[in-house]
Write a structure and sequence with these properties.
This protein has about 190 residues and is mostly helical. It folds into two domains: about 60 residues, no CATH class; about 110 residues, AhpD-like (Up-down Bundle), CATH 1.20.1290.10. The protein contains nine helices and no strands. Helix 4 runs antiparallel to helix 5. The chain starts with 14 loop residues before the first helix and ends in a 5-residue tail after the last helix.
Length: about 190
């Protein structure tokens, strides 16, 4: 199945859509070194960002959640990217995997760690916070909850704020994976 949603060129956007576009392309995702392209060569938004133009009020809110979990979180870069890549593998999201493997490399993830995640396995991690984040992510993806032991492990390693941000991250990237399957034609 191919993409179901045509990408809109910047000149085709109404004012509400243009605000979403400007927020995405001019926000923190676009600042600093680009790990992946937000737009195609003609300026159309790529991946899940294109679908956000369908409903500018919801699109703005969804992209703001994404910016918060990526740029305002207490989770370290490596821990965050490990969790995102675990979600991408769980939902078989090619766009999320491609984009966040590029980001993961800049955060210091190794090719071996990313290959393990791609295969649905846990990479060998020595950092206790990263291990707790990945274990909690795995539990959230597997059964949508944490056992008392898993809860205590992640809270002891990273704190309750980090756990709140992690649950939000898992839900956000799951939402993007769903939207990519529906609108961009990614496989199940």
């Amino acid at each position: 199945m191919g993409a179901r949603l045509s990408g809109l060129l910047p000149g085709q956007l109404d004012e509400e859509q243009a605000e979403v576009y400007r927020t995405i392309t001019g926000g923190p995702r676009a600042a600093g070194p680009q790990a992946f392209a937000l737009t195609d060569p003609e300026g159309r938004l790529r991946g899940p960002f294109n679908a956000m133009l369908l409903s500018p009020p919801v699109g703005l809110a969804v992209q703001a959640v994404g910016a918060a979990v990526r740029y305002g979180s207490v989770l370290g870069e490596r821990a965050r990217e490990l969790a995102i890549l675990a979600v991408a593998a769980h939902w078989n999201s090619a766009f999320e995997r491609e984009a966040h493997e590029a980001v993961g490399r800049t955060a210091g993830l190794t090719e071996q760690e990313m290959a393990a995640l791609r295969a649905g396995a846990a990479p060998e991690l020595t950092d206790p916070v990263e291990w707790a984040v990945l274990r909690a992510t795995s539990a959230l993806l597997s059964h949508g909850a944490l056992s008392d032991e898993e809860y205590e492990d992640i809270v002891s390693a990273a704190g309750e704020r980090a756990l709140f941000e992690l649950t939000t991250l898992v839900g956000y990237y799951g939402t993007l994976a769903l939207q990519l399957r529906v609108f961009a034609g990614e496989g199940p």
